[in-house]
Design goal:
CATH architecture of the largest domain: Alpha-Beta Barrel
CATH topology of the largest domain: TIM Barrel
Radius of gyration: 32 Å
Number of helices: 26
Shape: globular
Structural class: alpha/beta
CATH superfamily of the largest domain: Glycoside hydrolase, family 3, N-terminal domain
Strand order of the largest sheet: 2-7-6-5-3-4
Largest sheet: 6 strands, mixed
Number of domains: 4
Distance between the termini: 20 Å
Number of strands: 30
């Protein structure tokens, strides 16, 4: 008797294999669609090198280290040193710090067990190997309360009382979950309270705040509200102490008063400036008994070791704040227009106000040049002198710690201040002496200048700050009684100011200029006031302290000069470029803006957000695509696909204008250009026709991190503001060199960073990625870091040029400002990084200048970056994805070269329509010139000789997917065949069974 055919089994197997095959095909299709992304994640080879005979030395960029272990060890010490030199001591009553040897301490606050090492988003870093605070202190011989530490680290506390930080990269605060301090109530510490007395030498409190990409921090003002803050978080202001944090301080004060704790020390673990009212009983109305406070920023992978060294006294603090710290952050005039808003009539013009293609949201930089101390100290000087209608402005109740402030365990004296003038510069010398008797330490010397605020300025809408940082120096470690003479050179170009309304170029006003050496911006203004004859006594106490005339120098410019700085170093005439970003001048005519002016502080200080309105012209300018194809035949079609036998390696060191570039570029095909330009997500593509290798480009501002692309990461350095706060050019140049070393060791040729936007307010989500609120220290430190990174053949992409100073509605937000502010504040860091640091490349911003996307604003990219600054490398977009407003044709025409996109939609649907457009193809060719020029001078050429050639290959994962799809398809076919056979056999078997049954019945 035959067996019953297994139809059910084969039916099931057929269904399973069919589903698997369909899923594999769909997965393969998606994977192939995002080939660039998959290649990045898998680090898959897309080419092979065909080696020729050559004995050339092809290691064009060499490592200074003999092993990975040596490099990693050196970098761990370097990161700790940056933190130790960048942390700023704010308060140290009765010499509460440093701690005594063997001190027994208790650590409070969730931040003590969950430090902020860096922010979230594309700049996030791997800190899995970072030491914790307890380990760092114990390494310094300080004993830590384990009972309390274990309580804060327990599963229950970590689950219910952890800081909540937006983890997703989105563009609105609501979409990014929420921010929350979420500190544990005091009652949750009761089980550890009996241990406090045994570890009572100090209660060390860590207040941490997080920031990250895609979401600005809530302030409780101007559109932000309590719903974005979880729990009892006060008024919705994330940078004020929460109710639980205040409760913590109150209870510690009680324990200090009863002798349980000898002192209370607070560490500010944040790159977003926390309001400092809690440190001043006269401001907050309560004395929390805090003895010492130190700002430590985001500490990076090993920076907490530097903090421990400071607390233990192994290192004396020498960091200086790079933002003014306030009692109330709403005293910042930028706050009133910081959060974006919609044009009231946006719907009338069908302008999008959400999503990846924002058109109808805007932000106005109404404060103009008066960013941070440029406002606080200028209005202070006017209040002292009785000028500018400063009103009842009170510096002492506004500013807790001024820009540049940083205390020390020792004291320093300045003397022998001397300034000599040369043709192009001022040369400054100053003697610095450690007048303390116990501690050795470094001192940061800051040099400020003041330019005259003249009638010409008032008549032409030019604004002047009372003090501007123009130089700095850091001494070596000085033993008690030791001295050092520092030298600072100030280029005369630092004295220029931009006249956007009359001369329409840079000018140097006629009048008296003051230079002063100072410990911070406020000290600088007091010195200058003293030079003008003002004292505390003769101003009825309006001055906060008498200045030191001996630390000032006056230089007089006889006549207004509008020619010396009217031409850039490249020979380009400098004139207005950004009128379209000024609402008062833009052809879009969105409305009038009254800029903040020291001519009348009270009348011009913002009290509510500026209201602008959309117009038809604005809507036209906001169109996703402006190029209409009318220039298609305006030039000849360039040569494509020529067989000239030239390879990219032969162009190493060639001048940008070398005629051989044309020979090389003629070899490119249209598809090779499109593939390279439109699929630039963290790479530049391999090109077979010219033997170009695929390069890998990665984030980030705190060091190399592949957090977004699934790769390995290297040393996570401190946040950029801590780097700037070191005021140590040589140290940060070494940081840059080591970041370059990491890239060299891990096969990366490009770095998305450093971040060069400004700390416009304390609430920007990405302040940790940016250096400071002052463009001079930001630009000078950035230039040093860039120089170090690029010394290892790594091209930087300065990001994000420019005005990407907030995260709200960032994809397409219209930013409006005047040209003086644009040039003197927001473009100055790029200027120094390119002209002084030699930065190769730039990443443009998501935002618009007025109505024009950064990546398609030719006055910014071609006029300013390439024309005035002489940038020769490539300009990449920020992540473009599917954003329609980041248009290919418009971007190419304006000067963009490569799109940070893994989405082949542009490649497959948009670019092909330009294949016969000679104008756009010519623009593509020029973009390829910049891309190839950059790569040819990078470490991507290491290992390549002039005899080598490249062959593009299919990456292994595509072969594997092809094989998988084939195997599953074959299995499915086999299962279908077996199912068909089984069905046929079942029919035969069924018939046999029926016949057998009939025969049996007949026999009965």
């Amino acid at each position: 008797m035959s067996k019953k055919p297994k139809v059910g089994m084969w039916s099931g197997l057929t269904a399973v294999t069919a589903v698997l095959t369909a899923g594999a095909i769909v997965g393969t299709t998606v994977a192939f669609h995002y080939t660039t992304t998959v290649n990045n994640y898998l680090d898959a080879d897309t080419y092979k090198i065909i080696r020729g005979d050559s004995d050339e030395d092809t290691e064009y960029f060499k490592s200074d280290f003999t092993s990975d272990e040596e490099r990693e060890s050196y970098e761990a010490e370097l990161c700790a040193q940056v933190e130790a030199e960048g942390a700023a001591l704010l308060k140290n009553d009765n010499n509460a710090l440093p701690l005594a040897s063997g001190a027994k301490v208790s650590l409070f606050g969730h931040g003590s067990v969950d430090l902020m090492y860096g922010g979230t988003g594309s700049g996030s870093v791997d800190t899995s190997k970072a030491p914790n605070f307890k380990q760092a202190l114990e390494d310094q011989g300080i004993q830590v309360n384990s009972t309390l530490w274990d309580l804060y680290s327990s599963d229950d506390m970590m689950k219910n009382y952890s800081r909540i930080t937006p983890a997703a990269i989105s563009d609105t605060l609501e979409a990014n979950t929420q921010y929350a301090v979420n500190e544990a109530p005091w009652s949750k510490l009761s089980s550890a309270e009996s241990s406090f007395a045994d570890y009572g030498d100090a209660a060390i409190v860590v207040f941490s705040r997080s920031g990250g990409e895609g979401a600005d921090l809530p302030s409780g003002e101007n559109g932000t509200n309590d719903s974005w803050i979880k729990g009892q978080e006060g008024d919705g202001n994330y940078l004020a102490l929460s109710a639980e944090e205040k409760e913590l301080l109150q209870n510690l004060k009680t324990l200090k008063d009863n002798g349980t704790f000898k002192k209370i020390i607070v560490l500010i673990n944040s790159s977003n400036a926390i309001e400092m009212d809690f440190l001043n009983p006269e401001i907050c109305g309560e004395d929390y008994g805090i003895d010492s406070a130190m700002w430590i920023g985001d500490v990076g992978q090993t920076g907490i070791n530097g903090v421990a060294q400071l607390l233990a006294g192994e290192v004396t603090p020498s960091g200086s704040l790079v933002d003014s710290y306030l009692y109330d952050n709403m005293a910042n005039p930028a706050m009133y227009n910081f959060y974006t808003q919609a044009y009231p009539n946006a719907a009338d013009y069908n302008l999008l106000t959400d999503g990846p293609d924002v058109q109808g949201m805007y932000s106005v930089y109404q404060e103009g040049i008066y960013l941070d101390y440029r406002y606080y100290e200028t209005r202070y000087e006017d209040a002292v002198m009785g000028t500018g209608n400063a009103g009842d402005y009170n510096w002492s109740t506004t500013v807790a710690f001024p820009f540049g402030y940083g205390d020390s365990y020792t004291t320093f004296e300045y003397s022998d201040f001397n300034v000599t003038e040369s043709a192009d510069a001022f040369n400054v010398t100053l003697k610095v002496t450690n007048t303390g008797s116990t501690y050795s330490g470094k001192e940061t010397v800051q040099l400020y200048f003041q330019s005259p605020y003249t009638d010409y300025d008032k008549a032409n809408g030019i604004e002047k700050a009372s003090a501007e940082l123009c130089g700095f120096a850091k001494t070596d470690i000085l033993a008690p009684g030791a001295s050092e003479t520092v030298n600072i050179t100030v280029d005369k170009s630092e004295l220029r100011t931009y006249d956007a309304n009359n001369a329409k170029t840079y000018i140097v006003d006629a009048g008296d200029y003051y230079f002063t050496a100072a410990t911070d911006a406020h000290n600088a203004v007091n010195n200058i006031l003293a030079a003008k004859g003002y004292t505390v006594e003769n101003t009825d106490g309006r001055m906060t302290a008498d200045g030191d005339v001996a630390l000032t120098y006056k230089w007089t410019n006889a006549a207004l000069d509008s020619t010396t700085f009217a031409t850039s170093e490249t020979g380009t005439a400098i004139t207005n470029l950004f009128d379209e970003a000024d609402p008062n001048k833009s052809s879009s005519e969105p409305g009038e803006v009254t800029w903040l002016s020291r001519s009348n502080w009270v009348a011009t200080f913002p009290t509510q957000p500026v209201v602008l309105n959309a117009t038809q012209t604005l809507a036209d300018h906001l169109a996703f695509t402006r190029y209409d194809g009318s220039k298609a035949d305006s030039v000849e079609m360039p040569t494509l696909g020529a067989d000239n036998g030239l390879a990219l390696v032969s162009m190493i060191g060639a001048d940008y204008d070398d005629p051989q570039w044309d020979t090389l570029l003629d070899q490119l095909t249209f598809n090779e250009m499109v593939n390279t330009i439109t699929l630039g997500f963290h790479n530049t593509a391999a090109i077979e026709s010219i033997g170009k290798t695929r390069t890998k480009d990665e984030n980030g501002p705190q060091g190399l991190t592949a957090a977004l692309t699934g790769g390995a990461s290297a040393m996570c350095y401190t946040s950029e503001d801590v780097m700037a706060a070191t005021f140590n050019v040589d140290l940060i140049n070494d940081v840059g060199r080591c970041i370059g070393e990491d890239c060299l060791a891990m096969g990366y040729s490009g770095l998305y960073g450093p971040g060069i936007n400004m700390h416009r307010t304390a609430y920007s989500g990405r302040n940790f990625e940016y250096y400071a609120s002052d463009p001079f220290v930001a630009g000078t430190i950035c230039a040093a870091e860039v120089n170090g990174i690029q010394s290892k053949g790594v091209y930087v992409y300065l990001k994000h040029v420019a005005l990407n100073d907030s995260e709200s509605s960032r994809r397409g937000v219209n930013t409006w400002l005047n040209e003086q502010a644009a040039r003197e504040i927001y473009l100055e860091v790029a200027d120094k990084a390119v002209t002084d640091g030699g930065a190769w490349s730039v990443m443009s911003g998501f935002n618009r200048w007025g109505a024009y996307w950064c990546g398609a604003y030719d006055n910014l990219l071609t006029g300013f970056l390439r024309g005035e600054l002489g940038l020769r490398g490539m300009i990449i977009t920020d992540y473009s994805g599917s954003s329609k407003y980041m248009d290919l044709a418009d971007g190419l025409i304006a000067g963009s070269d490569i799109w940070d996109s893994p989405d082949p939609t542009i490649h497959t649907t948009l670019a092909p329509k330009y294949e016969n457009d000679a104008y756009i193809v010519t623009e593509m060719r020029e973009s390829m010139h910049k891309i190839l020029y950059t790569v040819a001078n990078s470490n991507a050429m290491n290992g390549w000789s002039s005899a080598d050639r490249l062959k593009v290959i299919t990456p292994w994962w595509k072969t594997a997917l092809y094989a998988l799809d084939t195997v599953l398809a074959v299995l499915t076919v086999l299962c279908i065949w077996r199912l068909v056979v089984a069905i046929k056999r079942k029919k035969t078997w069924t018939a046999e069974q029926a016949a057998n049954t009939a025969n049996a019945q007949n026999q009965q």
